[in-house]
Amino acid sequence: MASELCKTISEAKLERHKNLFLNYRNLHHFPLELLKDEGLQYLERLYMKRNSLTTLPENLAQKLPNLVELYLHSNNIIIVPEAIGSLVKLQFLDLSDNALEIVCPEIGRLRSLRHLRLANNQLKYLPADLGRSRELQYVYVDNNAHLKGLPSYLYNKVIGCNGCGSPIQKTEVQLLSFSSGQLTVFLPAEVKLIGTELDRVLPLQEMAMRTLYNIYCQSLKDLKFMTPISLPRSLLDLLHCPLGHCHRCSQPMFTIVYPKLFPLRETPMAGLHQGRTRVSFVAYCCSTQCLQTFDLLS
Ligand SMILES: [Zn+2]
User: Fold this and answer.
1) Which of 48, 282, 283, 290 gives 20 to 30 Å between its CA and that of 129?
2) Per CATH, which fold does 1-160 belong to?
3) Residues 270-284: pLDDT tens digits?
4) Model's pTM, two decimal places?
């Protein structure tokens, strides 16, 4: 078995392979052959899922400097060394189904990383600046039972998060929810109503803020005295201070408003200016629906 592994790696080295498949090899540590001498300078994709690795070598970046994708799904990895930050070309990192309790901030600072998979670990929190990099677009953190809250940078990313720890429910409603501690907040049905590409759908963050606000108002009446749930500070502050309320339906708006202009000369106030003014009255609405149906005269 060991000699077969050596042969596979030597071959990859000699023939300058870009892909190396070491899945299902019962490996307890990184094979030395991978890290010997100058390493595998041409390797771009390394597949090592379903082994028994517990950590990664410190010199990974020196030995595999051109690594673009690293698949480590289903190992027993507890710690990822900070040296992973030196894999400057890494775009895809799969650490799902491991035993990670923390991830080092260096992972979030990998400047080429686009796709990060951390589902099914033991994560309690994520580095505060995870998601700050523009490149990082997809982050999966499903089924981390103790994870509470997400770094605010992730609110603009595609996040695979079934509820920060709740077991996956197969109903549609559950798939459109997120939870924080005891509170499960269902995303509004509008999420599911994307018809054509012309439909303007509110950003997810805005919908979540409105839903949270309504839940708090219903249950606690006074937002000032609410128990802080594990929302990032920036979102909690935002929740306390809506940008305004919809002129049509009075719904609070947090990050987006739809303005509607009414030139004063077309309003009942036109007489005050003898129709000469170019000033407009601006109404703010919460959605395209309110925008279309709002009328100054109604
Ligand atoms: Zn409205």
Assistant:
1) 48
2) 3.80.10
3) 666 665 666 667 788
4) 0.56
